[in-house]
Amino acid sequence: MHIVANEPSLAFFRIQEHVRKVLPLIVDRRSEVVQLQQDLQGHCYDMEYAIGAIKSIEASEQSFQNIHELLKNAIFLKQQLKYEESRRSKKEPSNNSVYKRLSAHITLELPDLPDLSGVVRETTNRVENMMSHARNSSSSAAPSGNGASELQRSHTTLH
What we know:
Blueprint: H1 2-5, H2 8-59, H3 61-91, H4 98-105, H5 117-141
């Protein structure tokens, strides 16, 4: 019995039996690891894209501050014009135009903009609307199948 138990062919048979039982599990685990690696790589690319987008938004802070100052100046100038028009209309009541009557009812008062995220979101939506309108008008005028000219947007930006 001892000789039969130590026979090399029996050992090879046991090894083959073990490999046959374990190999499908190893193949399944390997495919799971490969899938997880691909998912992780995709998430890493998404994170790098999001970080780049945030850095570009942070870099545009100076531009938004300039826009904010220009808006303040425009509002101030509009108020000065309105004041001058009201002074002139008191001096010259006979000069009533439709424009002056309409502009007297239109007021432009913008709140102070300490948080620019809403402004950024609104501006983004307006630009996207203008781009889609321009794309629709250009595609109806001259249809082209070039997908490279279209803007692409990730789900990680400003939603």
